[in-house]
Amino acid sequence: MLLFKKKFFEAIASGAKRQTVRAWPRRRMRAGQLEFIPGLGRVRVTAVERVRPENLTDEDARLDGFDSREALIEELRGLYGERLATVPCFRIRFSYPADG
After folding, report:
1. Domains (ranges, CATH) in the chain?
2. Which residue intervals of the chain are DSSP H helices?
3. What is the rounded distance in angstroms from the CA atom of residue 13 to the CA atom of residue 26?
4. What is the CA radius of gyration of the chain?
5. 19-23: strand order across its sheet
6. pLDDT tens, position by position, 6-17
7. Which pLDDT belongs to residue 16?
8. Which parts of 12-88 are beta strand (E)?
9. What pTM was estimated for this model as a whole?
10. Cα separations (Å) of 76 from 23, 31, 44?
């Protein structure tokens, strides 16, 4: 299951958001998996890669529904705080709907 704040639902449904970055102690999913977003339905995970926050790019920000890399990093810091520097991060790309 992938949880998102409701503020991201419209961007996911429109296809503007096709990626998320998560700070997890270990990889929790793999490409090809079907996952569920409560309130939206199923997505298909298309890629999962470990990434350092400092290596995120403007392209990552665009795929994640943000205007800039700085806006993406700010959101991640708000979500994860100090953990962002100590816990591995994963770039998760997905397609919605799952069969789309």
Report:
1. 6-95 (2.30.130.30)
2. 9-14, 58-63, 69-80, 83-86
3. 28
4. 13
5. 19-23, 89-95, 41-51, 34-37
6. 999 999 999 999
7. 95
8. 19-23, 34-37, 41-51
9. 0.93
10. 9, 22, 23
